[in-house]
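Feature request disguised as a bug report, sorry. It would help if multi-protein outputs had a clear separator. Right now it looks like this:
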Amino acid sequence: MSKFSISPSEIIRIENEQSRVLSDFVCVEEPLEIRLVYLENTCETEKSIAITMRTPGHDKDLALGFLFNEGIVSSITDMISIQATENHASPIPPNPIQSSGSSENQACEISQTTPLANNLLPPKNPHQNEIGSIVRCKLAEGIIPKLHQLERHFYTTSSCGICGKSSIEAVRIECRIPLKQTKWTVKRNTLFGLPHTLAKAQENFSYTGGLHASALFDLQGKLLLVREDVGRHNALDKLIGASITLGKTSHLDLEIDNGRAFESENDIPKFIIPPPTHEVQNTFTLPLSQHILLLSGRISFELVQKAAMAGIRLICAVGAPSSLAIDLAEELGITLIGFLRDERCNIYAHPNRIEH
């Protein structure tokens, strides 16, 4: 079946004293359940560890990035497989405590192109009975997840990734990648060009105006990778998960996306899936200490923490940082930049990496 990140919608537009009916696009928000499968005392155990509201697409990247950023896995070699299935049971997110798999689930395609021939929109609800998805992540033999590190109540919204944390201690995760000193600097003009480059790459945002983006650039301002989602934390999980996949390509059946293309102006975007090259693998090998992270919204504590888990040393955003995000960036030696737009910005931590 097809899974779209944007959906057609009929709207009434009011302008001045006139109103008219138009066809428009909105971003899709659906639940995703992440399950772990692992051997415990020679028995295979399957546990649901989180349900997050996300925009469909790159669900495997999201799951991998989530597990890495939560400290459940330390590398792609901890995984045997990642499989995505559709859940047909109910429009309500399943209870992860009771969930143990379902024979009614079926494998799905992650991305597919549907042309909008003659400017006609695709069906408004092409699969009304297919609500939500499940990603099963099977760990390698000998890898026993420390689920107490997660300590979630198993449900997170698309607006906040730590609302499900059950304790203050569980909010902070120990970074496993040594953050070594860096000697490089980035020119101000390079930073000023990043938002414009990202805006051109946010194709789904251009349709809906409702998706956040996380993007990786090299130190010269070249765009390397973009991920979009209705949730800011999901977009970054997808980005880091994709980086892990591209940097450590293995036999895993994971999504690899290096860009997007259109069949015509009116088409919903399709995803290009090229084979990874040696150069691409080197580009995305963790730690991502030779990269710039750009966020389309504000900077929260959790986003700084996720970036630190991947070894990122320079975070930029078009929005504002929180006080706790600034404190964490200062502590970890991460350069933190907010309000990056219209050829201006504010530097909140470690300005030594920015050329004046």
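(second protein starts here, but nothing in the output says so)
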Amino acid sequence: MSEKPTVTTPSADALTAEKANPKRFVWPAAVVLAVLLYFGISYLADVFTHESTDDAFIAGHVVSIAPRISGQVAAVHVLDNQMVRSNDLLVEIDPADYAMTVAQKEAAADAQSASYKTMFAGWQLMQAKVTTAEADVRKAQADADAAESTATKTQADFVRAQDLLKQKTVSQQEFDTTQAANTKAQADLKSAQENVAEASSRVEEANRMLAAAWAQVGTVLAQWQEAQTNIAAAKINLAYTKIFAPADGRVTRKAVEAGDYLQAGQQIMSIVPPEVWVVANFKESQLAKMTPGQPTTVEIDALGGKEFRAHVDSVQAGSGAAFSLLPPENASGNFVKVVQRVPVKIIFDEPLPAEKVIGPGLSVTPNVQISKFILPAWVVALIAIAITGTVVFIFLAVTGRKK
């Protein structure tokens, strides 16, 4: 008959002692403690080496689009939130009225051009008359010079004839002939001198008429130039009937449709360029160690808190309240000190996702590194492990001594 195997059953005291033994929970607890220490030390290190705020948002340029002329909208070539490039056609205004104005100004300029040519031809004619009058003066002066020579000669002959007559050398008839010749020569000289004076007066009159003609030419020329300026202005207004995008960006706040009548300066849409930055309103107590160039990480809420590298660009010279529409008057009434906030401009160091729309006003959380020395993650992990090991060693030593 075979013997039954002997089964050893642990006693109740042994089971109780095994359950009460805490050593089996040491290593799981050590892992949990190490993880908690890692995150706790990281948080403390971040508190002492970084400054953060949730009062921050995305900022960017907003380009307002408005027509420079009035008119009815003929066509709108963009849609809401559409991405456009620089010089893309946005809106067309009916150009009929402005094209008619250009035609009218060009016709007026042609008339002024014809008047200018007529006046200029008249001035050239007067210039020719002045030349003719000056030639007449020269001819009259030459005749006067010849008459003066003749008069001088006949005067000398007459003087000699008088002497000869006294000497009874010439006859009375010869003397009378010489005297008559002298009288005629003197009369011719006087007539020639009067002709010179008359010709000179005609030159002066022609010069005055030439000056008057030139003044008329200048007046008509000024009118023609004004007409050319009017044409240029009309063509500029005609070009303004097409509104182009001044920069790359996304169309926002579109408020124009075909058929609308627009006034000059009326805002019809805005374009938001892709270049954005962060404006963070830090407390004044957080600015003690903050300087431009410090590295920053920016969490964008619209992207699920994804972080992007950035850096501090500049700090505004004054609090935000000082530049508000109604700045506080601390000199009146009772004063209560309020911690002020100062805008800090932060620029991204890496491109934002092109497929995501990141525009002005979105909330972000910047974290600025204000200390040059920071604890690397592996150092924090070593410190957490060292502290955890020390705690485990002390715990095992104490529990072993009690046992």
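Even a blank line would do. Unrelated, but nice: Residues 96-166 form the longest helix (71 residues).
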